Amino acid sequence: PCTKDSCTPATGCSSTPLTGTSCSDSNACTTNDKCADGKCTGAALTCSDSNSCTTDLCDPAKGCIFPPVPDSPAQSCEDGNKCTVGDVCSAGVCKAGPPPNCDDDNVCTTDVCNLSNGQCGHTNNQVACNDNNVCTQTDKCSGGTCVGSNPVSCNDNNPCTNDSCDPGKGCVSVDNGTCECNFAAECKDDGNLCNGVPVCTNGKCVVDPASVPPPCSTTGDTACLKNKCVPATGLCVKTPEPKGTSCSDGSACTEKDQCDGTGKCAGTVIVCEDNNPCTDNKCLAASGCSFPNKTGSCSDGNVCTVDDSCTNGACVGKPYDCNDSNLCTQDVCVPGTDGMPSCSHPSASGPCDDSNQCTVGDACVNGTCTGSPLVCSDGNACTDDSCNTATGCVFSPSPDGTACSDGNLCTTPDVCKSGVCKAGPWAIACCLQPKDCDDNYPCTTETCSANQCIYTLKSCGQANGCLAGYCDPAGSCKSAPAQSSVTLYEQSFEAGSPGWLFGINGGGSPDIYWSVSNKRSADGKYSLYAGNPTDYSYDHGVGNAVALSPQIALPAGMEATLKLAYYSLVQESGCNFDNLVLRVHDAGGAVTDLSPKLCDATSGFVNTTYSLKGFAGKTVRIALVFETP
Q1: How many domains does the chain have?
Q2: Which of 341, 577, 583, 607 is the most exposed place for a label (fewest CB within 10 A)?
Q3: Does residue 553 register a pLDDT over 90?
């Protein structure tokens, strides 16, 4: 391969050696084979596997080969690990020797060999360990030392021991001498299985609840035979009650019932006897002794009774009749010396009734019923007081018209009627209190003094000779020409009779009087009526009724005129019977009759006038007086 072969016709084949051309000398032990002067040569191959346990060789056919050196303890080598010693060749490989002994006998350190220098090192750890103290449970390394924690609980829950822990032995319990028992065998059993077996609990002997038998059933028990627990066996057995135990045999006809000791109840038969001849003696098992009533004759053992017989279970006789019909004696029957009844009548005391309704406080005195006279008085001046022996006090009405007093100073005359004191008309100008004098007339002021009304007229004076001063119905002072016409006072009685006073002159009947009535009227609905408004008649005795107006101030210098509308319904014309008299009462107390009297009947209301010229400058009242015989 290291020649360049060619052939020319002239010379034929020729070979030219090559240099530097790659080639192969077919020897595996050379490398980088190249031609040099026509020959193929290569550099020797270096065989090395860096393994002291092999021999480095080259086989021309195979190239580098590394057969192992023979195994021998003397054939040392180095495995590259500082922490192995005594490395030797084995099968061409450097086999590591054993590691160095780094154990410091401390479980709480981690023992390691430093690979860089082969020196032993000891690092603290926190692994579990054993501190050789059985009184600790959780042992763990800390700071290179085994430390124990979580002490063992040695409480055996027995109050009878003192509990502690021995590091070498563990829990130790020592009897402290304070308990009744430590185990059941130390508890004394009373041998009664009905109350259970004792056990030792918390150092005390107590009954084991599970050993107590259930209560014995009471079904079928009687007072003398009961289901009871037998101490020796703890079983329920029907057991008789002791002899003499109280019981009830269910019969009301026995007493002192007792148990006989064999489980049966028995009592002593009772004797039913009420010693009453009027009853039968029986005994009923359900209720006991029964004494039903008998009938027929009997004897009560009393000689002062007769016809004895049984009545409602009792022997009853009729009392022997000793009645002397005198309430003031005792009627007594006593047995005579001959065994027959004998009567006696001693005087009695106490209240009685003499059958006279006109006596009171009747009482027996020396065998006679005597009373004090009854005082009959009802405190009524209009009754005549008397007494009837059969009926008692009698209060007969006094004759009508009998004088009396109703206790009111301003009513007069008060007279009796049907047994009652009827108030007379209110006396003119009489008062009990100031309001009784109110005349509802603004031109006056009223006071009450010594039961008499005093009226003071408002003074309006006189302006001059041509003018007259007066008080108008509204209570205001005014003046008017002396010859003019003004209304000083007017009353239609449509709103009652304010300021008017009504009364009855002496001898007049209280049943004939003045009052406001709607029976008839001149204008409007009402008028002032004289008579009895219940029947509108005068037939009630002598009439002398008075109606008095409020005070009226008549101005000086003026002539006043009284105008009146009246209706007269009288029995006869003429002034010998019924008539109406008009009077003027002045402040000085003078009374003047106005003429004429009104005596004749009219067919309707008639207007009439009266001159009051003579009363100018005075304060007056107008009086209407109705007279009838």
Answers
A1: 1
A2: 607
A3: no
